[in-house]
Amino acid sequence: xxxxxxxALLAFLLFGCGMNPPSPSAFKAQPEAFSTRGPSEMxxxxxxxxxGTASPLPTATSTPPASMTPERPASPTRPPRPSLTPxxxxxxxxxxxxxxxxxxxxxxxxxxxxxSPTAVSNPSSNPLxxxxxxxxxxxxxxxxxxxxxxxxxxxxSDQPRDxxxxxxxxxxxxxxxxxxxxxxxxxxxxxWFAPGNRTDANFEKVLNLSPDGxxxxxxxxxxxxxxxxxxxxxxxxxxxxxxxxxxxxxxRVAGRPVIFFSDMYRVPDAAGNRPAxxxxxxxxxxxxxxxxxxxxxxxxxxxxAEGLKPDxxxxxxxxxxxxxxxxxxxTAYRGxxxxxxxxxxxxxxxxxxxxxxxxxxxxxxxxxxxxxxxADLRVSSAPFARDRENGAYYARTWEAVLPTxxxxxxxxxxxxWVEGSYIEPSVRFGDLYxxxxxxxxxxxxxx
Length: 447
Fold this sequence. Notes:
single chain
């Protein structure tokens, strides 16, 4: 999982709103958080909380403040703005393959590429399948402050072109929404921890600041927090659905709200115990089935699971992949047609409509996150860098996904600055990746 948060920041994020940090025993109860996951699974993120007195995490009875007005930081000195034509980026420390030339700024053709031989069948053949909305979403991380970029944990020391920022600032959120809309993005998947905490407040700001046509959802993460248990997961989901899904800017497909989930196997039981490993899928599926039965037995919302395990489709309504490349497997993204095929085949066999969300990514570089001060709650995996190749790598991930006819496309990410997958304008890349996103989003929609 995603979006690593520096230690001091996550302590504020979780406990600055009334949550006390857990004791060291909370970490001992979940050793899998420090294991190495295989190449078929995604890495996870989030910063370790400092030690202290254990306290239960908030439940659905936690009521977030009506407003959250943080102290505004002093305006930082902005980095120099690059020219309209950004300079070619420096190569990262581990190069990826370069079978295609670097793209130019010339707009991409409006025709959709011809399906590849491995393209999956058209989902419209199932009369129960909802019409594909052809929406483009982007992962969004709402927990930065001006100190984030001085930790040494961000990717290759790059910084936002428009200056370092505070994620609680409504002006920053509004700017990000405007930049995303101009790039053809239809909404954010905001990474969300718990009721009443900073991510909850900032998600509400995203909804309230969004214009018509920009619809966002959350990536649900409560279950990975130290001290979480199954009743807490149920309460957090009930809160999320009751408080936010009725908002007119909450993402819906065919009238049903959409919720993303991450790190599926880390789901706890009532005592807070987690499955022994990511291979114990049966236990995780059984626990999620209990949670779904308690929260949404009639499937009035779309629940979208992360991962490469089609077994989760017994409980969830779709699949997506968070991390589509790995140190061990530099062309893992080419598996998109196989992943989509699992979803379409399940739908065909059961008659239950399922959504396939294809993921695209401009690059990756989390080498700096290996430093001791950058310890986080991600499931450990080998840090690596995937060269962006001036946009050519991004193009290949789109080319792998488009023939699978995804119901939605998820960009990883708008602003993941620790794992180095951001498309937000930066000092190194300028607005190149927003321009490329606009071209590819138009191509996805057949314009």
